[in-house]
Amino acid sequence: MVSNKLAIASISLSQYPGHTLDHKIRAASQAGIAGIEIVYNDLLTHSKNQNISIQIGAQEIHTLCLENNLQVLSLAPLENYEGSTTPLKERIALAQHWLEIARLLNATYLQVPCIYTPDCTRDAKTIISDLQQLADLASATKPIVSIAYEPLSWGTNCSTWESALSIVQRVDRPNFGLCLDTFHEGTRLWGDNASPTGLQMDAETKLQDSLRRFLRDCPREKIFYVQLSDAERFETPYSLVHPWALPGEAKEFTWSKHARPFPLEVEFGAYLPVVEIARAWIVEGGFKGWVSMEVFDRRMKDGKVSPETAARRGVEAWRKVQIEMENKSRL
């Protein structure tokens, strides 16, 4: 069975304000999870509740993670960075702050999803330059922080692993690589929440072609970590009058925020080909690094799902994916 270490995002252990970050950390550790992605807003809430600075909060959380044998995989997510119309000087100052917090957490990575706001440049040189400066800032002070760049299925300039890899190669920094997520691969090429069938046209062909190209073209050393999550098929197909729809918001973003359970949770409507994607990325691709659960389940917002329950769901989902990947590899 594949031996990748398992992590989980702090927001995937609960979205209920009454479930504190220290509670989530203990729950993840007790479930046998080895790492955690600290979501900035969870850390900010923790610090405000303690009436301390976020810097002191980060030090506290780092110590708590050490005490619970939990490695901080990343600080996440620094959003809408590259090519933004916000002045670069302001973005650099924000990045310096995030990197300070990442170092206090002893986080290996700073997760940077690709920009998804329409209010941004499409100029490739500007995008590459912004990201080069970010990577250089992250390596200018010890410990070096690596930038995990994530393609989003609703990204403005980047929505596939291939477009993200092209950016990674042009940035050309050793501490700049990919964060790959099964949700984005699955909803960009295969699933469609606006379709009565739940599928895109030629879904299987598009996905299989993408996975073949991945195995041929993607350097393994540029995959920093892999995130796993599924997607719930909409009972009523998405439309602009859907109760979750927001003006100007991409349908994939709406999907991600409300209906993104743990892998293979068919009891919650999960239906993406997560195992096929993960098998190509992890088993066939020979990826030995971290696998992290990043889910956004609307059922976690009212406090009825405890962090302990969420952590167990994450562990069970990974166990199922491992078994299914192994079974498919023997066929």
TrEMBL record:
Protein name according to UniProt: Xylose isomerase-like TIM barrel domain-containing protein
Name of one Pfam family that matches: AP_endonuc_2
Xylose isomerase-like TIM barrel domain boundaries: 25-320
Domain of life: Eukaryota
